[in-house]
Every structure is written in C-alpha cells, then in structure tokens.
Amino acid sequence: MAPKKNYSRYFIILQEDEKGFSLDTEKSPSGYVKLEKKNNKCKISYYAQNLSMEKQPYHLILVCNKKDVKSLLPITKVMVDEHGRIDLVNEYDMDDIANMHIGMDKIIGAAIAKIVDGNVVSIMAGFTSAEIPKEWKNYSIMKDKREEETEEQNIYEQYEENIGNDDSAHSDSVKADRENNHKENNHKENDDIENEHKENDDIENDNNKNNDIRSRDKCKTDKKQDDYMCESINELSKQLNKEEFPLGMIGDFFKSLVECFEKEEDITKELKYCNWYSVKISSIDDMYDMSDYDRYAVIYHPMMMYYAYIQKYNHFCVGYKCNEKGKLQYIIYGVPGDKAKEEQPFGGKTGYVTWVSTENKPNNGYWLMFYDVRNSTVVVPVKKNK
Questions:
Q1: Residue pLDDT, tens place only, 257-312
Q2: What confidence tens digit (pLDDT) does each residue in 164-189 have?
Q3: pLDDT, tens digit, 9 for 90 and up, residues 309-332
Q4: Which of the pair, 372 or 162, is modelled with greater confidence?
Q5: Nearest to 140 by CA among 216, 61, 199
Q6: Is the preceding omega at residue 3 within 30 degrees of 0, hence cis?
Q7: Which pLDDT band, with edges at 50, 70 and 90, does 10 fall under?
Q8: Where are the alpha helices (DSSP H) in 240-346?
Q9: Which numeric CATH code is attached to 7-147?
Q10: Scanning 3, 14, 161, 317, which has its CA 20 to 30 A from the CA of 107?
C-alpha cells in the first residue's frame, strides 16, 4: 500500500477593505487566496473579480505574524483583465515563500493592495482566523533576498573600483612629483623671461586704472537703469489681477481645463493667490469624460480612486495656487468632508493631510492634496512661524 502524500490546503476569503476600486460600482470586489502544501512545495493561487481597470496595477501581499515575524510579503504586481479579474498561481519552496526565507506556517492573511510611497492601501483582505492584527498594514514590507544579494555585490564591486581609483590616484601623485622637479629645474630660466615682461606689465597696469574709472561710471548708469526697472516692475505688479491667475502660456493651458467649471469664492482665505473651481460629479461615469483628454488627465483621472469619498457630496474642488507674480506653483485637489478621520481619504496616506474649513460653514471643509506642477510630486505644506 502506497504511503499518503503530505498534502494540505486552506482558503483565505478576501473581502472589500477600501471602497472605490470596483469595476461595477453596484457590486463589491470579491476573491480568495488558496494555499496548498504538497511535499516540500507551496502553491499559492490568487483569484479576484470586479476590480477597477483604472486603478491598476495592484500588489498581491501575504501577511505574516507568527514566531516573532511581523511583516508583509509582496508576491508580485499584477494587472487585471478587461473583466476586472486577477487569476494567478505561483509555486515556491515551503520554507522560502517569494524568495524571502519565510515559511508557509507564518502566513496568517492575504491582501490585494496599492503601495503608495511605502504605505499600504488595502483594497481587499482576508485572514485565517477572526483575530486580525490591528496594525498589520504598518508591518514592514520585505524585499526579495536575491535583490539584497545583488545590492551587496554591487557594493563590493564599487569597493573594488574605489581601490582601483586609489591606485590610479597614487600613480598620478608620483607623476605630479616628477613634473614639479622638472619645473624647479626650469625656474631659473623663467626668471629671465619674467624680467623682460616687467616693463610691459607696468604699462598694462596704467591702462587697467583707466578702465576701472570708466567701469565705475558705467556702474552708476546701470544702477539708475536698474532702479527704473524695479519701479516699473513694482508698478506692473500692482496692476496684476488675481482673477486672471495663473499667467503666461502655462497658465493659459491650465485655465482652459477649468473654464467649464463653476468658480468658487468661499473655499478658504488661508491660501493667497489661489483660484478655486468646483467639479460636479453625479456618478462615476462623469469622471470618465474624455471629450477633452487634457482635462480628463489633469482633473478627472487623479480623483477616480477617491470617488467613494466624493459621491456623498457630489463634487470635488480644484485650486490653482500661484505666487505673487501669477506663476502657477501647485494644483490643489480638494475632497469635501468634515475633519473626522473617516472622511480623510485613505487616512492621509496619499497626500490628503491638510484640512481647511469653508468660509460660510466652519464645520464643513475640504481635505487638500498639493501637487507640485514643475517637479511632478505631491508635497506637504508647512505653516511658517510668524
């Protein structure tokens, strides 16, 4: 009679953790993770459906919390098909899941998530028991051991290269010493040549004095011109109209994107030189408006993942923050809501860390995210001490 093979399996049911990632907004995403152990191998199967195509790519993550190991294992990054499905199977050694030297016995959960600046935004998650660690999203994200070995190898190669450079520098130093000795031998000859040029230098110095006098006169004239220019610039700045900000060709481009939206006057007075616009949203379909692709790319697309927060208020805001000369500095995206933590988009992990109250309704306001147009980065504003 043949012996039974060492085989076991269990399922982790994935449930929606963060709203706004559904392909069909009337249904929640669903899925599961199956872990199979056979002999010394572990097969991991991920399946999910009804995930938004606009929000991809997604990260497949395993949660570890056993025997002093508290970490997240990023299995891979995936794209969904046209039906919003993920169907993936990977096989590993039972004691080396995802090449990270973590055993199958340490896995307590799984998730489909977005990783934004090292922070985990869980879209779907599930666990093997009802005891779910509260801080699991803050566990450290592990790296592939092979990547770490490659980094160590690169460091070693760089060390060897530095040694080679040191040897080269030593050779250059010896060469320089020889050249210095050669220069000392020729020093006496150069003294005679210098004496011949001394008289010419005296004549040249007299010419330089005359040039200095002319330069000082020219500086006085330039200063008068600079003062006139400064007065002209100051006079021009007084004539600048904040309502026309942002200025210039770049300003004209961004103003053309919001010309169809209603201008808002009472968002906040805390931000100077800022013009605000209200973008009305009655359904998720409004955010797929591609009649103007530039408007879609700048206004609608960045806000799609926040629809779950926006739909309650049927709008969001966009602000153009300029400097005193009308030059565009930041695009500000505003999600309406009160100051409660549950109304802060993704708990602030995607840049919405500033809340401002509206002028007429102090209990209501907006969570703001500042986007640096020129450096293409999300920035966090800091209040200056007065």
A1: 999 999 988 688 888 899 999 999 999 889 888 888 889 989 999 998 899 899 99
A2: 454 444 445 444 554 555 445 444 44
A3: 999 999 999 999 999 889 999 999
A4: 372
A5: 61
A6: no
A7: confident
A8: 248-258, 293-295, 307-310
A9: 2.60.40
A10: 3
Sheet strands (E) in 190-314: 262-264, 274-280
Contact 357, 348 (CB under 8 A): no
pLDDT of residue 72: 93
Cα dihedral value 275, 281, 287, 292, nearest 10: -50
What is the residue-averaged pLDDT of the chain? Answer: 78
The pLDDT of residue 159? 40
Compute the distance between CA of residue 299 and CA of residue 316 in angstroms, rounded to an integer: 10
Give pLDDT tens digits for 237-263: 445 677 788 998 889 999 999 999 999
| Three-state secondary structure of the chain | CCCCCCEEEEEEEEEECCCCCECCCCCCCEEEEEEEEECCEEEEEEEEECECCCCCCEEEEEEEEECCEEEEEEEEEECCCCCCCEEEEEEEECCEHHHCCCCHHHEEEEEEEEEECCEEEEEEEEECCCCCCCCHHHCEECCCHHHHHHHHHHHHHHHHHHHHHHHHHHHHHHHHHHHHHHHHHCHHHHHHHHHHHHHHHHHHHHHHHHHHHHHHHHHHHHHHHHHHHHHHHHHHHHHCCHHHCCCHHHHHHHHHHHCCCEEECCCCCCCCCEEEEEEECCCHHHHHCCCCHHHHHHHHHHHHHHHHHHCCCCEEEEEEEECCCCCEEEEEEEEEECCCHHHCHHHHCCCCCEEEECCCCCCCEEEEEEEECCCCEEECCCCCCC
Integer Cα distance of 235 and 176 in angstroms? 60
Side chain identity, residue 251? G
Given a cut of 70, whether residue 77 has pLDDT beyond it is: yes
Q: What pLDDT score does 189 carry? A: 46
Q: Where are the domains of the chain?
A: 7-147, 243-379
Sign of CA dihedral 266, 267, 271, 272: negative
Q: What is the Cα gyration radius of the chain?
A: 33
What's this model's pTM, rounded to 2 decimal places?
A: 0.43
